[in-house]
Every structure is written in C-alpha cells, then in structure tokens.
Amino acid sequence: MKKNIFFFLHNLKVGGAEKNLINYANYLSKNDINVKIICLSAKGILKKNIDRKVKIIDLNKKKLKYSIFSILKIINNTKPDIIFSSLLHISLLLCFFKKMNFIKAKLFLRPSNVILANHSTANKTSYPIIFLTNFFLRYADLFFCISDNIFKELRLFKVPSYKVIKINNAIVDKDFYKKSKKPIKKNKILNKNDYILSIGRLTEQKNHLMLLKSFIEIKKKYNKKLFLVLIGEGHLEKKLKNFVKTNKIDKDVIFIKNLQNVLNYIKYCKLFIQTSLWEGQPNVLIEALLLKKQVIATNSPGQNKKNLDQFKNCHILKVNSIKNLSKTILYFLNKKKNNFKLNKTLNYSINYSSKIILDVIKKN
C-alpha cells in the first residue's frame, strides 16, 4: 500500500526551503509515494517546477492564523502517514497538533534557518516564538538537519540526537550545468561588462545595505565598468532602491525580480556575494560554489567556515564590516582568475538527499 505524505509550504515563491521541499516531493512522487503539497497560497513561479503527479492544495489564505482549522480538517479527513514541514511557524503549529494528539501522522521537520539568530532574545516580540519553539519543537518525530549550527540549536531545544538526521540541500539535477550555460538575454549589458551578484529575498536577513555601501566604496577604486546585480523580491525593495538613487549608483545597480533560472546569472558573474546575517544552508551560495565561482560570504550562523571549508573557492570574512567586505571584493576583482577544480556535486544532488528521505519513509 502506498504511503501518503503531505508537504506544507507558505507559498510557491522563490526560496531555498520551497525549492528543496518541491524537489523532495517530485522525487518521492516518482518512487511510489502519494504526495500532496498544502500551501497557504499556491501562487508563485515555483508552481511550474512541481511534477504533475504531485497534488497541490491551495488554502487561499493570507496568514497562517486564518488557516489553522482548514489545515487540521484536511489532515484529519485525509489521514496522511507523514507530514513534512520546513518553515518555523507552520512547523510549530504542527508540533502543537502532535503534542495535543490532534494528529496521528508522523511529523518530519527540516528547519530551514537557525532560530536564535533570527529571533533574538533581546527582541521582546521574539519571546513568544522562542518560548513556543522551546516547548513544542521536540514533539516532531524526526528532523532533517542541514547545518551544524541548526543541530546545536535543536539540542538546545531539547531535541534528542537520535531524532536528527544530517542532510544536505537537494540542489543539483541532470540539467544543472546545462541551465547555467544559457545566455542572459533580458539584460544584454551584462554580457559585455563585469558584474558582481547577490541573490536572495530583499529582507533584513540578507543584509543588502552592507553590500550596497561596500559597492559605493568599490566604485571609487575599481578602474573598470562594474555592475551590482541583486536578484530577489521583498518588503525592503523600495528602501533599497531609494538608497541606490540617493547615493547616485542607480545606473550601476540592477534589481531583478525572482527568476525561474538564476544559474546562468551565477555562471557569468565576476564574483558572488552573500552578506546574510544568518542562514540555514543557502541554496544559491552552494550553487555558486558548484559552478566554480569565487564566493565571498559573511561569517554568520549557518554560513560559517566549518560548513563550507570543503570548497576552495569560498572566502568567509574574518570581520563582518563594510570596510572589510569592500577590501575583500576589490582583492578578488583584481586577482587573476583562478582555475578551481570542479566541486563534487554528489552530496548536493536531488537524488542523493531525496533518497535519504525516501529510505526513512519506507521505515516508518
């Protein structure tokens, strides 16, 4: 008899957690598992990535609090064998359901970010999240852990180590390198000029202002035409664009909305920069490393040297400052091109990570 599994997502917009869960869902649906993806809102460009065998259930709600009874009703009516979640708020709701015995399904979680860096204890508005996490998170049946930092936090939240399975992101498919070689057609100016690239939601977490301030300093010292490309969407878009305009770098900074394929933008960039304040295991950073690009990244929870020291083309900042970032970017811009060896993709392949999950499902 086929196993039934539910994946829960907020929406189908671009994001590392969303991409990974969709990759898992597609793989499992091709391996004799009935898969459904439950979304608060099923809008977003990632909808095109979902296999036809995977059923999408759209709750058509703006916020999680309006979806609580709908989620519980769907679970109890359909009775899945396993429920899978990655985003914290949904995961905590499902953990509460488990604690209260409202659901019988096994609950698997894949925390997508470190929690304590995201919800600082100094911020009073974060107290409820930290309290709920500390009280309810342990009631999940199994955790798929994508970084050492997340593992340490799970232990702090009293999750026993026997419930934790370490896993890498599901990134590389059979067309990974083929997609990276596609020409950039919409922004032809980038085909003729150097550009540095950053990809991520336009939110506080990604710390784009640090990069923009560094770019102002770089422009004063770099003697060639140089662009900064920011790919992503988010609530800080207007603020960042105003900063760019006020500082008169609007002709040199290119904002691009979320794209179905960013691998070609990564392939042809001069440098890839990640200035995040915290992470889980960032998809785009790993993609850049696998494509042999020189990467510069802040030293932050979930994105530190211990996680990334296998990659020779990853430079972690010793000091997270505008001055140090500017100095480091200029150093690598002026450095002769390195011929990095191709990084092994096996541990980051969709099949590799998804098979680990499939084997666990078969045992449960």
Question: Mind explaining what this structure looks like?
Answer:
This protein has helices at 16-29, 68-78, 88-99, 127-136, 148-156, 176-180, 208-221, 237-246, 263-267, 283-290, 305-308, 322-334, 350-363, and strands at residues 3-9, 33-39, 55-58, 82-85, 106-109, 142-145, 164-166, 194-199, 226-231, 253-256, 271-274, 295-297, 314-316. α3 crosses α4 and α7 (208-221) crosses α12. By secondary structure, it is of the alpha/beta class. The two termini are 13 Å apart. The chain contains 13 helices and 13 strands. It has two domains: 3-170 and 349-363, Glycogen Phosphorylase B (Rossmann fold), CATH 3.40.50.2000; 176-346, 3-Layer(aba) Sandwich (Rossmann fold), CATH 3.40.50.
Structural class: alpha/beta
How many beta strands in the DSSP annotation? 13
Distance between the termini: 13 Å
Helix count equals 13
Secondary-structure element series = EHEEHEHEHEHEHEHEHEHEHEHEHH
- Measured by DSSP, the beta-strand proportion falls in 15-25%
Stretches with pLDDT under 50, minimum 5 residues: none
* CATH class identity of the largest domain: Alpha Beta
Radius of gyration (CA) equals 21 Å
Q: Which sequence of strands runs across the widest sheet?
A: 3-2-1-4-5-6-7
Q: Residue share in helices?
A: 25-40%
Tell the overall outline. globular
Number of domains: 2
Sheet having the most strands? 7 strands, parallel
